[in-house]
Amino acid sequence: MISSAPHVPRYSLAERDRRWSLARDIMAAEGLDALVAYGEHECADLAPFAPDAYFTNDRPGSVVVFCRDADPIQLTWSNLPITDHIEATRRGDDLWIAPRDIRVAKNAAGIVEVLREHRLESGTVGVLGLDPYPPFHINPILPYRMWTEVLSELPEATFVPVGLGYLFATVCQSDEELAVIRYSAAAGDAMAEAMRAAAGPGVSEAEVYAAGMAAAYRLGVAAPGMLLSTGPGFVSWGPPVWSYRPQPPRVLAAGDVIMAEVFCRFGMKETQHQVAIAIGEPHPDVRAAAEVARASYEAGLAVARPGNTFGDVVEAMQVPLREADAWNVHPLIHSLNPMGPVCGFGSGLRRVPEARAYGRLFDVPTMGGELPLAPGMTFAFEPNAVVGGRLANLGGTVVIGDDGAVELNPLTAQMLYATK
Length: 420
Hints:
Layout: H1 13-30, E1 34-38, H2 51-56, E2 63-67, E3 73-76, H3 80-91, E4 102-104, H4 108-117, E5 124-128, H5 144-153, E6 158-161, H6 163-170, H7 175-198, H8 205-218, E7 226-231, E8 257-266, E9 269-278, H9 284-303, H10 310-323, E10 333-336, E11 378-381, E12 384-387, E13 390-393, E14 396-400, E15 405-407, E16 416-417
Parallel strand pairs: 1-5, 3-4, 5-6, 9-16
Antiparallel strand pairs: 1-2, 2-3, 7-8, 8-9, 10-11, 11-14, 12-13, 14-15
Helix pairs in contact: 1-6, 4-5, 7-8, 9-10
């Protein structure tokens, strides 16, 4: 847990220099003259695509352009990020991008202008934004109109996607980044504890949601959302229905379970936490599903070490489900910081009788199984199992250490019980 007066980690200029060096390493490895990093708009919810913020340590939602050995240029969407930059300068914050290198020009003309200034009309340019970025951007995120205008203005240039190179260059966290991730993970535990304290018969699920979110905000950690389902048993997985459909939140009752996925983001590093809370004694199928999920968690920890691959961890975590004839609603594991490799899910939905009424179902396959594990990688361990039509979901954030897995959230890797 985070104390009432926590030490809040910050990034240094040495971390900036390390990241800018990684950008140039990508350029050298790919034979590039420039690198364009497109960032999703600010205020994006879960799993934002934000390589721009990785290189600026600033407000997300810009385009960052590296040209040869020059300092990067940041292209913002409006004057608002400029006003924030001015205020940060007045406060004495350590800013990574100098004012001379920030322009209000997040558009095709702005990108073209920077490349022309460096005489790269015929250069080879790597682009972050032309690759898929799971889980939410199965299709590339770069806007069609913006990119067609860039291609039209620079017909002699060669543009290549470099998402895979970015993943390999940035997936192992530095010591400074790991300190930020640990802070975020501790905030996730605080959210889980607040949710457990709030839960009980007669309590609205919205009250539980609010308690968790407030715990993160009090610690200065962004909680961009939460997936939450409640009831005596279910297979649903997603945000609470009242967050997108006008209807009252459900009121908890004895025998219910809360299954939630809590997201924390601090310093643009994300941790995820699988919160399972029983209101009294849960249904036997829920208890059985929780036991399968826990066995899957332990199996994954046992092989989450350097020398193995992401696919090895997926296979180990799937074994307890197969042995119990259970299935997983969502991934058992996926990478964090950045997102990338993900365990397959969804095939068991065909067991649900109502599923036959739907026009087409799609199983998401495991992607990135060949990724070799290395110290500093972070993963969301989220083993889940459905037994008898009832879901249980456990887990938290795990770091690959020198000799094995390092659990950041053992609290949420078990079924919790409401105290009311």
